[in-house]
């Protein structure tokens, strides 16, 4: 789901649009015949400066590693959008005081997750000032000197590092490099020590993750009840134990029609609570078409045997920037446990057998990271 953050986009450090410069194609496919992609990826990786480093260097054309391989995958603002569709918005006010109000909200949650796979939340309890400060904290981290950021730069996704800064976790396996840099922090159940967190966003990371954990508890209760289960069912399964905060920084792009911020994918956790600024660029696949959505939240539940939708979504590159988003992932992927997850038995019937085989979250996350964001859902690997 998404948490709605209101405010003027000028609060988030929008840069002036760079001058447009026409790119001279080197072949009908846009690729040089002697292009050595691996060498270019390595050279980019070794700078440890990310996409922000390229923008700071003053590039006016998108480097080859970022160019989408086929025209049909390109994204432009003149593509059709389903602006007439009304996104689900759920008001959480009064759900703990008024039983009838709670029933209404649970029904709305059920409808939203069965159709869209996500919804927007208002009156969620997290102060607007905290949302704004979280956005600012992400900007402070990514806009500090590269030499300072490099101390957190790593590609070790094994879980040993609880604070990870890099550009494209799947840099060497994905079909195209994405126009974004990221900061990943594992905040529960074993949070980093304060000195391990970047000073630029240390305090707000601790405060924000605490608030998101409370909101997550509430959302898991609502989802449990929407499934016809006890309010504590998903919590008792361990879905609320782990939390990771993934902050994306999308610099302004000189040629956004040639690349992508984040490609088509589904998340690899139980649910995601997303905070984003006012720039936009998020699209969700709904009713067989990509739909532009304003800054809002999405939900993903792995273990409902397809009763609830795991929504496909992507982020377009933009000439205006930076765009910032903060995804809070509820997952036990970083926890050393052999607990097995599978379709909830209470939801299975003779005419609705299990559609996915059992797995540990650790196994699922490792597979997801290994395959990268290649446009395929990680769930397909586990279908029976």
UniProtKB/TrEMBL annotation:
SUPFAM superfamilies attached to this UniProt entry: Clavaminate synthase-like (SSF51197)
InterPro entries hit by this protein: DIOX_N (IPR026992), IPNS-like_FE2OG_OXY (IPR044861), IPNS-like_sf (IPR027443), Oxoglu/Fe-dep_dioxygenase_dom (IPR005123)
Residue ranges the record marks as coiled coil: none
Entry protein name: Non-heme dioxygenase N-terminal domain-containing protein
Family membership: Belongs to the iron/ascorbate-dependent oxidoreductase family.
Domain Fe2OG dioxygenase: 241-333
UniProt entry keywords in alphabetical sequence: Dioxygenase, Iron, Metal-binding, Oxidoreductase, Vitamin C
Name of a matching Pfam family: DIOX_N
Record-level Gene Ontology MF annotations: dioxygenase activity; L-ascorbic acid binding; metal ion binding; oxidoreductase activity, acting on paired donors, with incorporation or reduction of molecular oxygen
